[in-house]
Design a protein that fits this description.
By secondary structure, the chain is of the alpha+beta class. The protein contains seven helices and four strands; from the N terminus they run βααβααβααβα. The site of adenosine-3',5'-cyclic-monophosphate (CMP) has 8 residues, from loops.
């Protein structure tokens, strides 16, 4: 078993598709081990995405992620990191395969509905950023 960190981003919450995304997550066989709705501050979003701080999209990304509530999740499954990334699809919804979260619910690379950790070390940092050990 492996755990990964996921976000249902502010665009998806605003569109009212959080429930559909959760249903697909559970339908794909993930166990939800942690779940909370939060509204990140700009500073909290900057801390979360610090690895992208030198990228030109950092300001827009952290504005967007602090623009409204999102749902943070701890998902568990065999090979959870890859499974969730496959279910999300490509970062840019225009390049994502049919049936993926980003294809079906994302509008652009900036408003792409969901986030997922890309490696075990990232998952450990991201889970620890939003969940205390005793919650999981
Ligand atoms: P996410 O998986 O949350 O990780 C960083 C986010 O930055 C990414 O999804 C996109 O929404 C956003 N982003 C905007 N522009 C780019 C880009 N050129 N490359 C990668 N991510 C980008």
């Amino acid at each position: 078993m492996q755990r990964t960190f996921a976000i249902i981003k502010p665009d998806a919450v605003k569109k009212g598709v959080s429930g559909q995304i959760l249903a697909r997550i559970e339908g794909a066989g993930f166990t939800v081990r942690g779940m909370r709705m939060i509204h990140m501050s700009k500073g909290e979003a900057e801390g979360f995405y610090h690895v992208h701080s030198a990228r030109p999209f950092f300001g827009g990304l952290t504005d967007f992620m602090s623009s409204g509530p999102c749902v943070v999740l701890c998902l568990e499954a065999p090979d959870a990191i890859k499974q969730w990334r496959d279910l999300m699809g490509a970062t840019d919804p225009a390049k994502a395969e049919a049936g993926t979260m980003r294809k079906d619910f994302g509008a652009s690379i900036d408003n792409n509905a969901t986030h997922g950790s890309d490696a075990p070390e990232t998952a450990a940092f991201e889970l620890g950023y939003f969940f205390r050990g005793m919650e999981l």
